[in-house]
Every structure is written in C-alpha cells, then in structure tokens.
C-alpha cells in the first residue's frame, strides 16, 4: 500500500514552519512531519471495516494546510488529543475490494467516497452505544466522543492506492455518477452545507468571498438553492473570473478596492476614517466567506448589512485577530459551517451527499471545467506545486491512481 501521511510531531512541524519560506522543498525533506511510504496491505482491523481501492482524489486546501504545516498548534481544536497521524486525501472515489464479515452497508465492487473518515472518529466508527446526541441525529462531524480514541483507526488515504475504513465512514455512489463527479461530491457537500446554514431569500444580495474551488461550488449551490438571489463573487485571478462568469455570477468584484466595490454593488454607504479600512451601512444580506482569513472575516462583517449574516465556509487554521464589533453594533450573525451532514430541504430530511448526488443527476450542479489539472499519483509533488500556485490557472488539481479513462 502506498500512502502519504503527516505526523503530529511538534519539532518537525516547527522546522517546516520556520524554513518553508526560504526552502519550499522542506515539506518533502527528512525534516518534515510528512512521509511517503510503501507498506504491506494492513489487515482489516475489525468485522465492520472495508478496504477500498482508490481511483481518483482531488487535492484539497486542508490537505495542503497539513502538508505545509499551516495549522497553528494553539487553535482550539488542537487541544483535543485526536489523531496523531493524518493520511492525506479525502476527495476520493474508489471501489470496495474487501469487506469484513459484519459489514452491512457495502459489498465488494461497490463505489464509495469518504464521508467522515477524514474528520476523525465518531460514535458510529467507534461503535459507541448509545451514540451522543449529534451522532444520533446524523451529525457525526460534531461528535462529542470524537477524542475518546476507542477502537482502531483506518490506514491510507486518497493520496495512495488504497485505504481501510469503517463502513460508517463511507458513502455509496450510484453507477450513473461519473468519476469526476464522484470525486467532487465531498467539496460540493461542503459548499452546499454552507449555503444551507443560512439560505438566501428571493431577491437578496449575496457575496461569495473567494473564487477557488469552494467559492465556485458555493456559487453553484446558491444558484441551486435560490435562483432569484443576486450573487456577487470576489475573485483575484483571471481564470477565477472566467469560471465565476461561466457559472452564472451576476457580478464580479475585484479585491483591489473591495470596500468601494461592495458599496457600489449593494448601494450601501461607505464611510472611511484615518487608520481604518472603513465600514459599510447597507451591505450584503448574506456573505459566504470561502477563505476564512482574519482579513476576509473582518471585511465580511463590515460588508454585511445590519442583521445580515456571514457564513464561515472556509477557515484559516490559525489564531485569527478579528474585529467583532459589527456582530454587536449591526447585529450581524457570524455562522460556522463544517463539512456536511443532515439537511432540511423542501420538506425533506436528507444527507448533504445525497442532495449533491441528486443535483448532479439533475444537472443543477456540474464539474465541467473545474478539474483543471490531472496528475498520476507518482507525480504528487508536481501536483501539489501546481495546486499551490494559482498563477498556473489551477482550480481543482486531481490525482489519478488505479484506473484508465474518466
């Protein structure tokens, strides 16, 4: 089995943080907590576990953050013991090639994607009975028993040729969903869940901050959830502008003079002051921040109208210094959105992944033009370099492993 993983090793993590700016290759060096390994296929660790042969896996920003050690050890989740080893690659489509004798959800030959495995353990994967209140409600990513470390962990990931997982960590994929579509179910779920955390209403003005893959998928999700919303997208690179226009953005904003652009787009009143970026009264109804840096969060709160909302779809895994005064002064709602889960959609209770699959089948969501670069697994270092450099025109970079055509 080939795999790439990152260990929670503080000395190595600090070495990469200190040297990365001067020596980008340090992330692949012996000093790094990242390892590329070739090992014998491990046995299934339990009766409800399966082995999956990977076909294709996208490179996600969270993978890159782990690899480049952009995660700050002082952020709140880092206080949890959690896993000590993180296998990279979770936007992965594969085929079940072995199933434990107690597996009921899958058979050998079934096509599956990861749902919760990358997010860590939960009551179902640890086989805890009774489950916590969130797992009982199908919201396993919020599990209150996630750090008990009860039972085995899976080995391998999407940046490899196979992996093992508890059956509860996987989601079935129908045969009429193509490989490209299947590999995008997870990031599409992230975007759709974020939009459904605060859906826009007809005629409302929406801003999507960031036109990377999650921003562009969020644009699609807004159009799917509320076609009558007016959607602006803040983009930085020409290829992102082209993609946002192709996917139906009503307006493209540049980040060159973002405050003035937001005021003009919304009809809001912009006020500036010495030593102050400014503030807008009468901004956007809903803002989906798909970057999540200190600057974008702070700006988004100032760009939202009174009693508007800012949804954190993306996040910088560091400690953020943010001016929260608009939350108080303008009663702006700051809403978190993490991965996917159970949605309430048009009178139905449905898992985000199933809703994404339905929308793919109906043509409401598309992957066309979004996978811009493809690499064999053996070229993973070049794939990572391409994904990191947006000047390459990269939107989604994918690794292809055990398969032929698309």
Overview of the structural elements:
By secondary structure, the protein is α/β, with parallel strands linked by helices. 26% of the residues lie in helices and 27% in strands. It has 12 helices and 20 strands. Strands 3, 5, 6, 7, 8, 19 and 20 form a 7-stranded mixed β-sheet that branches. Strands 11-10-9-14-15-16 form a 6-stranded parallel β-sheet, sandwiched between helices. A 3-stranded antiparallel β-sheet has the order 2-1-4, with no helix packed on it. Helix 5 packs across helix 6 and helix 5 packs across helix 11 (352-362). The two termini are 23 Å apart.
| CATH level-two architecture of the largest domain | Alpha-Beta Complex
CATH topology of the largest domain: Quinone Oxidoreductase, Chain A, domain 1
Count the helices. How many? 12
Averaged pLDDT: 95
Q: Give the total of domains.
A: 2
CATH-level-4 superfamily name of the largest domain: Medium-chain alcohol dehydrogenases, catalytic domain
């Amino acid at each position: 089995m080939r795999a790439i993983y990152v260990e929670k090793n503080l000395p190595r993590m600090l070495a990469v943080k200190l040297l990365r700016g001067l020596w980008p290759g340090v992330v692949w060096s012996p000093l790094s907590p990242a390892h590329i390994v070739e090992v014998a296929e491990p046995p299934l660790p339990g009766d409800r576990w399966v082995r999956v042969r990977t076909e294709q896996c996208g490179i996600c920003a969270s993978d890159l953050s782990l690899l480049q050690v952009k995660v700050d050890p002082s952020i709140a989740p880092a206080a949890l013991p959690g896993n000590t080893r993180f296998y990279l690659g979770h936007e992965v489509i594969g085929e079940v090639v072995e199933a434990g004798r107690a597996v009921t959800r899958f058979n050998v030959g079934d096509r599956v994607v990861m749902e919760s495995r990358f997010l860590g353990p939960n009551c179902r994967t640890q086989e805890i009975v009774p489950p916590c209140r969130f797992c009982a409600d199908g919201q396993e990513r919020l599990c209150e028993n996630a750090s008990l470390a009860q039972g085995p962990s899976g080995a391998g990931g999407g940046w490899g040729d196979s992996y093992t997982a508890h059956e509860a960590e996987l989601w079935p994929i129908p045969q009429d969903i193509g490989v490209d579509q299947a590999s995008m179910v997870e990031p599409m779920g992230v975007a759709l869940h974020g939009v459904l955390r605060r859906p826009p209403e007809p005629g409302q003005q929406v801003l999507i901050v960031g036109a990377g893959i999650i921003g562009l998928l969020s644009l699609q999700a807004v159009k799917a959830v509320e076609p009558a919303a007016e959607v602006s997208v803040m983009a930085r690179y020409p290829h992102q502008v082209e993609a946002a226009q192709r996917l139906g953005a009503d307006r493209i904003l540049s980040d060159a003079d973002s405050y003035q652009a937001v005021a003009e787009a919304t009809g809001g009143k912009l006020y500036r002051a010495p030593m102050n970026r400014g503030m807008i009264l009468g901004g956007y109804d809903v803002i989906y921040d798909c970057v999540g840096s200190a600057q974008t969060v702070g700006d988004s709160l100032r760009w939202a109208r009174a009693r508007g909302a800012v949804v954190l779809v993306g996040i910088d895994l560091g400690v953020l210094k943010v001016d929260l005064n608009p939350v108080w002064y303008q009663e702006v709602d700051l809403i978190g959105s993490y991965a996917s889960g159970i949605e309430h959609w048009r009178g139905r209770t449905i898992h985000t992944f199933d809703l994404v699959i339905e929308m793919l089948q109906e043509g409401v969501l598309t992957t066309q033009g979004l996978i811009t670069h493809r690499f064999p697994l053996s070229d993973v270092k070049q794939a990572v370099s391409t994904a990191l450099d947006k000047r390459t025109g990269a939107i989604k970079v994918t690794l292809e492993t055990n398969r032929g055509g698309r």
